[in-house]
Amino acid sequence: MDGNVFYAQVGYDRPTQTVTLIKGHGWAYNGRSAWKSVSERWLNETSQWVGSNSLCSTACVIKFANNPFEYTHREEQYLTNSNDTILLNYNESLSNLNPNTPRNVTLAHIFTIGAYELKYKKGLVIGTGLYTDQIINNRSFLVFLDHLLFG
Predict the structure, then answer these.
(1) Strand, coil or helix: what is 46?
(2) What is the average pLDDT across 72-81?
(3) In a 10 Å sphere around its CB, with 0-12 CB exposed, 13-18 middle and 19+ buried, how is residue 88 labelled?
(4) How far apart are CA 91 and CA 112, in angstroms?
(5) What integer pLDDT is reported at residue 7 of this predicted model?
(6) pTM for the predicted model, two decimal places
């Protein structure tokens, strides 16, 4: 239910049943050494396919003026596709960037974190914009989600 499923590229080795980071989360790895790399592996594709991108996780402070699910900042998606339809705007404010903040995030940008929908090809993406592990048992969130999915 979290929007950014394309944040990092991993590889799977079936014989050893191991998963290895290839690229993303600020790093790349070739099997022998690692080096600093992109934060988000498929930045443009994720915006096109999913409609949002990862904001800044613990690299900044985010507060929500509209917070019906009693959510606290952890990892959010901000809307990056002009075809997104905002269903619920959390009216966030962003402050306190630190040196680990991705280069694409500055206080000068205006961000929208919100629940949204995006029509993509023959499908429909519905994103919450929030790290839903934190609110999956919140009754208000479940009612909202039920309304989104089933009308």
Answers:
(1) helix
(2) 90
(3) middle
(4) 7
(5) 86
(6) 0.81
